Amino acid sequence: MNRTEMEMSGPGGNRRTRTVKRKVWGGLRQWKLLGMFEIDQQHEFYSLTCMMKEGLCAAVQNTIDNPIPNEFSEDDYKLEVTQIHKDFRMETFAGPVFASLRRSLGMSEKEYQHSLSSEGSYLQFISNSKSKADFFLTNDKRFFLKTQNRREVRFLLSNLRIYMEHLEKFPHSLLVKFLGVHRIRIPHRRKKYFIVMQSVFYPDERINARYDIKGCEVSRWTDPAPEGSQVIVVLKDLNFEGQFITLDHQRPWLLRQVEIDTAFLRELNVLDYSLLLAHQPLHQDERNHTLSFATLIMRTKKSFTLLSSRPRAGRSVTTGSGPAVPGAVLEEDLTEVNVRTSQSQITETSVDGGGGGGDSLDQDELSDRAGAESAELREFQAQNRRLLPNFKNPLHVIDGPEQRYFVGIIDIFTVYGFKKRLEHLWKRLRHPGQTFSTVSPPEYCQRLCQWVQDHSK
Q1: E strand intervals along 303-402
Q2: Environment class of residue 357 by beta-carbon count within 10 Å: exposed (0-12), middle (13-18) or buried (19+)?
Q3: CA 295 – CA 3 distance, rounded (Å)
Q4: How many CB atoms sit inside 10 A of residue 128's CB?
Q5: What is the pTM of this model?
Q6: 445 near 266, Cβ under 8 Å?
Q7: Each residue of 301-323: pLDDT tens digit?
């Protein structure tokens, strides 16, 4: 036994050992209070996250090297690509489909790859969720990685087509954006499924409050962080009472979009999803700003790009040569211009350019199609009339007169099956007269919409 071992083995050594342990656990508890901490070499997930980074880097490189097709077949939605690494295998599901969604968000593959595989360590996020999932953040906090069970992954992949169609129809949807689904196989260990999502709370530097809203009462209170501390705590419904989401003219858009998104989830027969909400004060120069004519023209052009690149069923989300950044919704007085442009585009693309008279359309057919396209365009504009901020995460950011709000709908995997029906009956007996999370999808949908209506102005 060497001198150090002898010192540690004596009574004094035991005290020093306990002191060291208390310091380590005290530090760990403090990090947990902060909500997230860096996954360094001593962390239990260090090896796993290193594999994630290596595997994701190679998976994204594969989409960089192989162009996204303009049309997707059923096989693309079922595609599984396996890449072999030194200590593990990484499987990527429906890679081209998710790559097309990333591109529709104005995100380049190189940019995505850099965030997922940068030298900085991932961060572990300590969630108050009841699920057994592990949550990780990229070092720049832009993307969430969440472990999922096999059933949840199968549910997402089986509904991927209609999820993509929903985002195509409503490109300003508040549903969380799933950017990739993967599985890691490590010899002699259980395979690990995980998904990559866009973080709703990005960028988070000035956020001063975060909430997880389900529209009910039971177990919906979290003790706030001590005043003046830097502790990150995600609060709940009861913590928000007495407050409002103040949006003024953008409120009708929010109410309608929440209604549209929750109706989609109701059709999937799911419940227990959450409306994530955060806010931060706007700087003085960000309040009541007016758009310059040049900015308005630029955003109008982006809107045209988005409208004209909207695919039909079976198409990829974007078909242009570059990323289709979702632009601001057009001003009301530009609607007729857009309609005329849409009609002229239809006329131009419908004229027979090669003399093949059998393929040309007569004037009545052109008028009917133009009318249908114009009506569809007006409906599309009405559902997506919103001014997007100049942000890297504009779809989940809504500016009110004095506050910037981060809003998104997450956790959409809980199906209202037999177990949930039993849980509903049990909670009715246990919490009479109170609202709780486990209710039928139609009631859950209606209740969350009502919460947003009651807590916004």
Answers
A1: 397-399
A2: exposed
A3: 72
A4: 11
A5: 0.77
A6: yes
A7: 444 444 444 444 455 544 444 44
